[in-house]
Amino acid sequence: MNDNSALTPQEVADILKISKNTVYELIKRGELNSYRVGKKVRVDSKDVESYKNKSKSIKNEDQSGLISERLKSYNPLNDELPKINGFVICGQDILLDILSRYLQLHPNGIQALRSYVGSYNGLYELYQGNVQLATAHLWDGDTGQYNIPYVRRMLPGIPAVIIHLACRLQGFYVAYGNPKNIKGWEDLKRKDITIINREKGSGTRVLLDEHIRKLCIPSYNIKGYNRESTSHLAIASTVARGGADLGLGNEKSGLQVKGIEFIPLQTERYEMVIKKEDMEKAPFKAVLEILRSQELKMELEGIGGYDLTEIGQIVAET
């Protein structure tokens, strides 16, 4: 294989004998380097080889997947919680994978571990002391606010700081050409619409549930409501191949999937939550410095799909 050759996601999938969607997931999680040529994603063959070599041995410090599985698998009602050692950043956006890389290279930084669980579970883990940084995009339908009401309720008695990361556009994924003429939330009342849902605890699932609550739509009246998937890419892929008429997700992820149109519905606030007692500790100060750096902002602008106007700003203390 030529070290300088550029591969498409499908060619990478063929080499690794995995699905193309899994390739996108590896890219999203920062496990496989990629770049864009216009709107097309490309991967250097040398990066594929690097990924294969890295995957041949499991290093003690590379616990991200294990953490994610451990946090997903336990029941919060159980007495025993999974014990995780290290500095853990909780959340699913690729922005956090990039932040972790910067944090490892920062003079006062640390090697961060990643947990890919949703917003609700991330806040719960922060409350339990299992993670150091949680992220959330949880919309409260009664106040119209993002995150602040949930942090106050889910971290009782724990002073916390909410730091803005980015604004992202949430909306419906529909098949190209929008054959069902879907326009907005009211279409969830239609009997001829089948959806694919996100998992419980994700910010996207909470957004959907809040809107159907306000519209007084019983969830059992929505076809496909109980079908769950754990990523935006998987949701968009299901819609693209005709497995559902619509799914809810962010614009950036949906545009990576062929055969999808995006119907914008709501701008969401994606934010980081830190316990106030940790704010003066070196790794946390490094995180804030990185978030406010021009280098990180330029890299995220290159990826696209983010409004970074307020990145690094403290928006609330609870």
From TrEMBL:
InterPro entries, A to Z: DNA-bd_dom_put_sf, HTH_17, PBP_domain, SinI_DNA-bd
Q: Which residues form the PBP domain?
A: 102-292
Q: List, in alphabetical order, the Gene Ontology terms for molecular function in this entry.
A: DNA binding
Q: Which NCBIfam families match?
A: excise
Pfam families associated with the record: HTH_17, PBP_like
The organism's superkingdom is given as Bacteria
The protein depicted here goes by the name: DNA binding domain protein, excisionase family
- Limits of the Helix-turn-helix domain: 7-54
